[in-house]
């Protein structure tokens, strides 16, 4: 079995990758867990019953590693990805560090994994969880009806900012119930996140945020298309998960029953759409799941050839970690 290195093993995404590897039949001897400046004796969970030693990335030699998954910041990827490549490892980068490199394909398993063959440097990247989540249900639609415009409204959980974001939501919620001040507890989000919605995900670059810009750019790169994309992104007071309303405009006629049929044909997409109260899927319903759930599918009569849908997924399990794991399995073959 291929030897897999997980860089950033103590982060939210890295921990989920380790769980996928354990569930997928990898043994402890097949996996290396790495973290910058790891303290001697550090361990991370490997599945439900085992722990894995976390080694120091700064001094690690990637010789013998077949695939390295970098679940890290852009800064760490910039410093260490080349070391893995120099030792012959194939690298899956989750940081977005190499987005602008034309010879680094951006892959969503189930959408464009064939692009792995164009990874001339043995390096691929994965998009944000949101992009993977909205594109997988649309893969057959794009093939048959050709998507020309997307309007995406996302509702992101605090896990986008990792443990620090989730901890801030928990802390603020507790303080509100205890009637305590939040003055010194708005560091990650800038504004109160508990019992609130914040229309800013990542920093502003002009009129839009970096996250909104990246959705536009990543969709184009994954689909290898000039599809028009407009994204609106907000944080909601949830710990894990990502939800999105997606309006789709196609070049060819569309029928929502045919669209539903196309989506149901796609692996890891579940259409649960009943036109009754509660006949849809919410964030709480998908915790720990590895699929995308589609509901509220309907015709968009405001444009020609348009439809819209609601989709939810566990952004850690399905989105980045799940995507990286699937690519690693494909590449290791």
Helix content: 25-40%
Strand content: 15-25%
Count of spatially separate domains: 2
The CATH topology of the largest domain comes to: Dihydrodipicolinate Reductase, domain 2
Mean pLDDT: 95
Number of strands: 15
CATH class of the largest domain: Alpha Beta
Globally, the shape reads globular
Number of helices: 8
Low-confidence stretches: none
- Going by CATH, what is the homologous superfamily of the largest domain? Dihydrodipicolinate Reductase, domain 2
The major pleated sheet works out as: 7 strands, mixed
**Strands in their spatial order, largest beta sheet:** 3-4-2-1-5-6-7
Helix-strand sequence? EHEEEEHEEHHEHEEHEEHEEEH
Query: Structural class of the helix and strand makeup?
Result: alpha/beta
Question: What is the radius of gyration?
Answer: 20 Å
Our measurement of the CA-to-CA distance between the termini, rounded to an integer number of angstroms, reads 9 Å
CATH architecture of the largest domain: 2-Layer Sandwich
């Amino acid at each position: 079995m291929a030897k897999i290195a997980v860089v950033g093993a103590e982060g939210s995404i890295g921990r989920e990758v380790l769980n996928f590897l354990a569930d997928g039949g990898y043994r402890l001897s097949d996996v290396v867990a790495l973290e910058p400046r790891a303290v001697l004796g550090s361990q991370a969970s490997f599945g439900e019953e085992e722990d894995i030693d976390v080694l120091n990335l700064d001094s690690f030699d990637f010789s013998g590693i077949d695939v390295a998954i970098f679940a890290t910041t852009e800064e760490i990827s910039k410093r260490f990805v080349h070391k893995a490549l120099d030792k012959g490892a194939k690298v899956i980068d989750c940081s977005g560090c190499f987005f602008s490199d034309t010879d680094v394909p951006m892959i969503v398993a189930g959408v464009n994994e064939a692009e792995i063959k164009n990874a001339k440097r043995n390096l691929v990247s994965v998009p944000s969880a949101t992009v993977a989540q909205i594109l997988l249900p649309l893969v057959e639609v794009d093939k048959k009806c050709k998507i020309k415009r997307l309007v995406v409204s996302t509702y992101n959980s605090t896990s986008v900012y990792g443990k620090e974001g989730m901890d801030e939501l928990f802390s603020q919620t507790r303080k509100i119930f205890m009637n305590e001040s939040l003055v010194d507890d708005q560091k990650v989000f800038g504004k109160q996140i508990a019992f609130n919605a914040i229309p800013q995900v990542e920093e502003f670059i002009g009129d839009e945020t970096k996250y909104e810009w990246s959705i536009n750019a990543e969709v184009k790169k994954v689909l290898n298309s000039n599809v028009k994309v407009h994204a609106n992104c907000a944080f909601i007071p949830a710990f894990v998960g990502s939800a999105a309303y997606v309006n789709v405009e196609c070049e060819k006629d569309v029928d929502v029953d045919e669209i539903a049929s196309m989506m149901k044909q796609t692996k890891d997409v579940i259409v649960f759409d009943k036109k009754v109260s509660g006949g849809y899927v919410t964030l709480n319903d998908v915790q720990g799941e590895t699929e995308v759930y589609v509901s509220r599918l309907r015709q968009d009569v405001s444009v020609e050839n348009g439809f819209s849908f609601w989709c939810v997924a566990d952004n850690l399990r399905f989105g980045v970690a799940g995507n990286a794991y699937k690519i690693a399995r494909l590449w290791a073959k």
